[in-house]
Specification:
With 219 residues, the protein is of the alpha+beta class. Helices cover 24% and strands 27% of the residues. The protein has one domain: 2-Layer Sandwich (Alpha-Beta Plaits), CATH 3.30.70.560. It is built from five helices and twelve strands. Strand 5 and strand 6 form a beta hairpin.
């Protein structure tokens, strides 16, 4: 179970390249007066994790065309690798920030990648340990299947360490295309039914018949 920590405080699998903004956002930001709420997941499991998270939040607040940044309480979670949870890896500190911004999604993503690099993020292996992980989880109701910028984040619905902090910030949050975050988080916390097992009598009926060795008649 995640352990909640007493300090301010993302989703594994980063979006490595920013897509080129198009249409109304060709200059990299939306028209005056048009603001969006972007959901950014933050995580760290190397170095001074708490200090890194605090510094990353400060960097988000310093971005241009950002009006506000709300941050959820920090939680601690087990590292998730391609083969599943890894109890032997350093644990993560995770949080979610809701960023009110006029930056276009691709431009915001480029800033997230820059902040990661400034904190020593090196992309050596998929879902490897990292000094800082910043993922753009959602950007308003924007949907994108561009491999350079997939929105919402394709694994957000399966990550309790993203859903729980997000829910703490916004109990009515909705993940575009997947539904209310509260429902998604509840589904992850519910025990999954065990695979159906057959009864011993069913196993006996389906077992191959074994021939007993012939014995001599004692008479």
């Amino acid at each position: 179970m995640n352990r909640r920590l007493a300090s301010p405080r993302l989703l594994h699998g980063s979006l490595a390249h920013a897509a080129e903004p198009r249409g109304a956002w060709a200059r990299g930001f939306s028209p005056p007066g048009v603001w969006a709420e972007a959901v950014v997941a933050l995580g760290a499991n190397l170095g001074d994790r708490s200090e890194t998270i605090v510094a990353a939040v400060a960097a988000l607040r310093e971005l241009p065309l950002v009006a506000s940044v709300r941050v959820a309480p920090v939680i601690e979670s087990v590292a998730v690798k391609p083969d599943g949870p890894d109890e032997d890896a350093p644990t993560y500190l995770n949080t979610v920030a809701i960023v009110r911004t006029r930056l276009a999604p691709a431009v915001l993503l480029a800033h997230l990648n820059r902040i990661e690099a400034e904190h020593g993020r090196v992309r050596m292996e998929r879902w490897g340990d990292r000094t800082l992980d910043l993922d753009l989880v959602a950007y308003g109701d924007v949907r994108s299947d561009d491999p350079r910028l997939t929105l919402p984040h394709p694994r957000a619905a399966d990550r309790a360490f993203v859903l729980e902090p997000w829910l703490a910030l916004d109990p009515d949050a909705v993940l575009p295309g997947r539904g209310p975050v509260a429902h998604l988080a509840r589904a992850l916390s519910e025990p999954r039914p065990a695979p159906a097992s057959r009864s011993l009598s069913e196993d006996a009926r389906s077992a191959p018949e074994t021939k007993r060795p012939a014995t001599e008649d004692p008479s």
